[in-house]
Amino acid sequence: MAEGGLVSLVITEAGAGSDATGMKTRFEPQGDDIIVNGSKIFITSGDVADLLLVFGKWSEISDAKGAISALVVEKGTPGLSVLRTEDKLGHRASSTAALSFDNCRVPRANLLGKPGDGLAILLASLNKSRPSVAAHALGIARAAFEDAVAYINERRQSGRRIIEFQGIQFMLADLASELALCERWLWHVGALVDAGVDDMGVEASMLKQRASDLAMRISTDAVQLYGGYGYCKDYRVERLMRDAKITQIWEGTNQVHRQLIGRSFMHKIKK
Ligand SMILES: Cc1cc2nc3c(=O)[nH]c(=O)nc-3n(C[C@H](O)[C@H](O)[C@H](O)COP(=O)(O)OP(=O)(O)OC[C@H]3O[C@@H](n4cnc5c(N)ncnc54)[C@H](O)[C@@H]3O)c2cc1C
After folding, report:
1. Is 259 a pocket residue for ligand 1 (Cβ < 6 Å)?
2. Which of 32, 61, 136, 161 allows an S-S link to 67, with CB 3.0 to 4.6 Å?
3. CATH fold label, 7-116
4. Element holding 37 (H helix, E strand)
5. Which residues of the chain have pLDDT under 70?
6. What CA–CA distance (Å, rounded) separates 105 from 3?
7. How far is the C-alpha of 147 from the C-alpha of 223, rounded, in Å?
8. Residue 49: its pLDDT value, please?
């Protein structure tokens, strides 16, 4: 992978999105192999990835969460097929595939950890990947902000530059302040990751939901500041707005992150 391979993270199923523990993909041990059956949806680069990190349930464990296991499946494994790729609103340079596993035989050595270790692996890796979604969102937010500022410094109406209108200045002030604070929080959470802090799920959730909401807000306002030109493809702000949307949805929707943050303040009931 370090030499340039692609890996997909394969969790979501048609009936198991926000609650990934409802997944039905099945891992059945058979001698030195594992037989994989099931289907997955919305897998980024799933049609082109060299390796797939697939999450499924170990057939010999009955507990719904305790059965989740993680397995590396190689591209070209017989029984693995791409059902389709999605036609999306944004993020169009990246493919998103639906996959099917039909009696895929995978060496048992490809299992990460032990059977049932999957949920812990999943949660630990998502805490660390959420800051990267925030960085993605804040890149979109900053690009949209800078494009809009450049445009309204040039564009003139009523004999003045658009940026000279006080209503527009108040709008910029709010966006710039939110952006500065959010960017600083990204560095804070990045430092926690670098320091090896394990218990940073709430900080990561705050960052992911706030940064992605901000990317949507700033890119939408940037389209507004461009007026009718913002709605046309000649300028990139319309693409930034379309690309921003996914950051509110993947790696846990923002509703789910708000729930995680809120739940963290719930006191344990004393028995
Ligand atoms: C372009 C794209 C790329 C993706 N890439 C990957 C990938 O590489 N690998 C992968 O495994 N998955 C991937 N996904 C899947 C993505 O993570 C899921 O779409 C996401 O987790 C939401 O699941 P869902 O679409 O089933 O929505 P649902 O879970 O059905 O949610 C529908 C709505 O209900 C809300 N909701 C759900 N539960 C709650 C709750 N408890 N409280 C409040 N509201 C709730 C949600 O916030 C949402 O608004 C990708 C999706 C897209 C669109």
Report:
1. yes
2. 61
3. Butyryl-CoA Dehydrogenase, subunit A; domain 2 (2.40.110)
4. strand 33-44
5. none
6. 26
7. 10
8. 97
Cβ–ligand 1 distance for 250 under 6 Å, the answer yes
CB 119 within 8 A of CB 64: no
Angle (nearest 5°) at CA 251 between 249 and 256? 70
In whole angstroms, what separates CA 167 from the centre of its chain?
34
If you search the block for the tokens 């790696």, which residue do you land on? 251
- What ligand 1 atom has the least distance to the C-alpha of 86? 1
Q: Which residues of 160-169 are buried (b: 16+ CB within 10 A; e: fewer)?
A: eebbeeeebe
Q: What is the pTM of this model?
A: 0.95
233 token code pair: 């493809």
Helix ranges, the chain (H)? 118-154, 166-194, 201-225, 237-249, 254-263
Q: Does domain 119-263 have CATH number 3.40.50.300?
A: no
Predicted confidence at residue 143, as pLDDT, reads 98
User: What pLDDT was estimated at residue 128?
Assistant: 83
Spacing, Cα 174 to ligand 1 middle (Å): 29
> Which residues make up the CATH 2.40.110.10 domain(s) of the chain?
7-116
DSSP per-residue letters across 141-153: HHHHHHHHHHHHH
| Binding site membership of 98 for ligand 1 (Cβ less than 6 Å) | no
Residues designated catalytic: 251
